[in-house]
């Protein structure tokens, strides 16, 4: 259980995407005394920048109790596997315990590979693991209540497959621990003669990758493959000789290559001691016998029998529910927040309310990128510093940052404590960056917003211009498909629809091909492929396979998702470049700064000139709350070779980006050549593009992640605002 600092008032809900009439379970941890209260607000603008419209919220009547008792709710990071023994089965006392391990943090702390204990008792009877100096050890409970430990004389090698085992003989009092590395050709054993307790563990519990003490502790970091228990004391030769008769003495052997897409682990031994995973470690990992002949775990499952455990894995905080919120039947679709209040302390839990199932309440649909929001959930940036913190105080912005609360679980843009990339994310925990007023960047004078807060520039603009709109989430689109979008005259994205499943892309493609009007108002969209867990609501997986701007790279052979078995990485590498859907795709990235667009000659053609009614400027968007310009940070361009339709009209292109901007890796071929074969400086641009489809629809793409940040400037009166107003008016009246 965590003992690290925590904000005084913090909560989360079991749902991020809801509909009227549904019920949301709200979970709160509060370090303060007495009761806290709850209310409902509609979030229109989440930008605290005093140079903009500021945070705009509307109070909404809702049925909450007068107060809710404050209490502290703990949580336990770290993944492991749990196997419960039935009352009629006990572990053998004379036995051999063995596992193949690939440790990633040997010598940092004590880590358990396997442990045995009695249910509901704090003491652990048996532990096989690595001590805080990197040596393999086995510790057992003796008959007099004390414990003894046998430790290897040599340290285990980091990121090297090693068999670690312990053998206990209650008749002779022998306790042996050993290790064998086939790669290094090393074998080490240590034997102790002692008074081994005949301590049968009835009503027992087996933990893999942790011990049972104060909840769970001593979490293992690294891969574990083929953990097993024999009901005999096996010597070194018998254990390592695959042709020996040790198999007939098998008590349990867990094969992690079975049920890869589930949270269950399977015992192929005689007692079928199946178990469950806690905090969802990484599955479909290359095992000790992976030889590189197959890159997909589905094609050679026997070589993917490893699970990568981490001491900081966290899927669901599993807080108890403090109250249930019934979403009013007639609540308008939009982005809301359940506001928790205790004195001067507040917390706002986001809630995206879709329209009632099967109903359309407006002609315009805003697709909320909740997959992307979740994937970035609790992204801790390395540049969180005093300047950033001072800006938070000056702007009265949201005060908490994941960089200061790393134990709450970080994003897939961060690393685990062992240096491996985080490939899972979930909204079943407090996500600091999904709060009104949160600043993603703090060093510049601009708003420094992304995702939830940056998308609110669009909703603020829609409200200011008087547009009626529904919001639909990625989750809803994934589950219900294109039929969800069909009734709408126009569908628009927000600033950064980066992460998608096949189902969401298929739905958007079908909507477009059926004559829909699609506005892509962001950059770096439709970029990474993600998978959703079939059992665990809200759990998302990303495999950062070959190519792309990546915070980390997946290990070789680990490019295929455990959750659905598909190749991860870029949609471009999966045969679906963003250009095929939206006309533009990711081309370049730099610092969080923005430039402007310059209109092309094609923009003056009578077929598209209507978009520029009321605009006399050749330069568009040389202003903005995000980055200082409408074309910035992440830039998308037209590429006909990658699927931009031949009739794509480039209305404007950005220019004058600073020296921090570079081509994305997938655009590079060598140090002097690139994919399009054009001068690099010409490829560092955002294209404002327009496409008319054969079925009577159209696509409008901005090619920039900072585009919407220009909308609120000058009280929403500017050439970017006018341009979008013209586009939406035509889309909604066509």
What does this structure look like?
Helix content is 11%, strand content 32%. With 734 residues, it is mostly beta strands. It has two domains: 80-309, Jelly Rolls (Sandwich), CATH 2.60.120.200; 370-733, Rossmann fold. It has a 16-stranded antiparallel sheet that branches. β9 (111-118) and β10 form a beta hairpin. α5 (474-480) crosses α6 (502-513).
Give the key terms.
734 residues; mainly beta; Jelly Rolls; Rossmann fold; 2 domains; 16-stranded antiparallel beta sheet; 40 strands; globular
Total beta-strand segments? 40
- Structural class category: mainly beta
Give the percentage of residues in beta strands: 25-35%
Radius of gyration computed on alpha carbons: 28 Å
Q: Provide a count of the helices.
A: 10
Quick structural summary:
The protein is mainly beta. It has ten helices and 40 strands. The N and C termini lie far apart (58 Å).
